[in-house]
Amino acid sequence: MKDILSTVLAEWIEKKLPDLIDRDIDLSNYLSYPKKIIVISGFRRVGKTYLTYQLIKKLLKNKNKEEVIYLNFEDERIPTKTEVLSELIPTLKENFSHKPYVFFLDEIHVIPNWSKWLRRVHDNHDFFLFVTGSSSKMSIKEIPTELRGRYICIEVFPLTFEEFLNFKKIVLNKKKSKKTEEEKAIILKALNEYVIFGGLPAVVLESESRKKELLQNYYWSVVHRDIIERFKVKNEEGLRSLLRLLLNSTSYSVSKLYNTLKSAQIEIGKTTILNYILYIENSYFMFSVPVLSKKIKNQLQYPRKIYFTDTGFITALSLKFSDNIGRLYENLVFIELKRRNNLHQEIYYWRSEQKEEVDFVIREGLKTKQLIQVCYDIDDYAVKKRELKALLKACSELKCNKLLVITKYKEGEEKLKGKKIKYAPLWKWLLKLD
After folding, report:
1. What is the pLDDT of residue 321?
2. How many structural domains compose the chain?
3. pTM flag (> 0.90)
4. CB burial of residue 136 (10 Å; 0-12, 13-18, 19+)
């Protein structure tokens, strides 16, 4: 065990860090929390490791590389045994002359009892601990009990639109809110690519001809490593069929999924379907949003709306994406809301008995803070009538007057039945220029 760790650590000392494009998240700010474990969680390819590299490069300006330790526990040479963690610090003392200043532990959750080891190390040593993971078990809602009060959780999502523009070397002057027609044309062209292919960093930098292929490779990697292998899934055909259904749907209920799979002669029980959905969400690949209702029965019986961590997966894997750009808009808005969301807010959708819907209801405790409709083409009279009717009905029922419609082009304000409705183009809302 010590020989393996010695080899891996020696390779780290010799490793040359890749060139980086800085992101908006600056981990160096968290060095002011000396008695907190910094947990960085998110989907496998959102750039968690490169964020740590970003901080490591800053630290190495003043620190010896022996003081800044990075270890990836998905290295196939490292056994997934608790003993690996137990031997780590003794091995460091034997091999390095400098005392560690910061530990970066990538995908540590694959090691049994990782959280107990982290607690012990945190309580008995004075170095900084940064840990990353692609499992929601490391998220702020599911972090193990033994780490409560000892950590700060950062959830990382694909690139924001502003980061996307930076990756594309498109200079944006945010102080100048009014854009020329030429500037707007450049932004809208970039937005179209962002909507269709998403914001996973490597995909953004890839040529358009290879984006779909890369997204499909990511998908199969997540299915095998983060779902099938991690949860020891036996019914692989059932899982893949379920994923195909979800990718081609905007909402689901377990009963409907069960009946659809049964009619396709896929043998899978309702309990297994529910477990598989939990596994999929655990990998950060998919999120589901419940209906807002005072009745628990309604929340359980109504379909849950489906959103994916990146719109690129809908483009690369769904059979229907080209017919519904509005779905991509809505998915993108959801991920941005997740990114902006604070600990006290929750996201729901609203549905009336007449099946009118409002896409997003932002709640803080028992109070509704905002209602949001996402409408790609609000200039269509029938569409506008339907969307605003639902928005005003929800406004009355939920006692919320902060009403927003996110569109492709339309912006400004409109008064309807005594209520003020704000319109914001998606690009302005994403850049926080609205």
Report:
1. 53
2. 3
3. yes
4. buried
Same-domain check for residues 92 and 200: no
Gyration radius of the chain's alpha carbons? 23
Q: Which residues pair with 70 in a beta bridge?
A: 104
Pure H helices in 283-372 = 296-301, 311-317, 325-340
The C-alpha atoms of residue 183 and residue 385 are separated, in whole angstroms, by 32
The predicted structure's pLDDT at residue 112: 92
CA–CA distances in Å: residue 191 to residues 23, 115, 187: 18, 40, 6
Burial (CB < 10 A; 0-12, 13-18, 19+), residue 223, is buried
| Tokens describing residue 106 | 């990538």
Q: Is 33 in the same domain as 149? A: yes
Neighbours of 155 (CB within 10 A): 19
Same domain, 239 and 351: no
Amino acid making up residue 127: F
CA angle 19, 20, 21 (to 5 degrees): 140
Q: Report the length, in residues, of the chain.
A: 434
Q: How is residue 152 written in tokens?
A: 């700060």
Q: Is 109 found in the same domain as 219?
A: no
Contact 393, 402 (CB under 8 A): no
What is the rounded distance in angstroms from the CA atom of residue 267 to the CA atom of residue 223? 19
Half-sphere exposure of 36 (CA within 13 A, CB side): 14
pLDDT in the model for residue 177: 66
* Predicted pLDDT at 178: 75
Mean pLDDT of 49-70: 94
Q: Tell me how far apart the alpha carbons of residues 371 and 327 are, in angstroms, rounded to a whole number.
A: 18
User: What pLDDT digit, counting tens, does each position of 159-218 carry?
Assistant: 999 999 999 999 887 776 677 888 889 999 999 999 999 999 999 999 999 999 999 999
Same domain, 9 and 95: yes
Nearest Cα neighbor of 292 from 239, 329, 345 is 345
| Residue 422: count of CB within 10 angstroms of its CB | 16
> Within its chain, how far is the Cα of 80 from the centroid?
26
Q: Is 132 found in the same domain as 169? A: no
Phi and psi (nearest 5°) for 306?
A: -110, 135
Q: Which residue segment(s) compose the domain that 269 sits in?
A: 158-288+310-322
CA angle 407, 411, 416 (to 5 degrees): 95
Query: Are the CB atoms for 290 and 338 separated by under 8 Å?
Result: no
User: Which residues, 6+ apart, have CB-to-CB distance to 180 below 8 Å?
Assistant: none
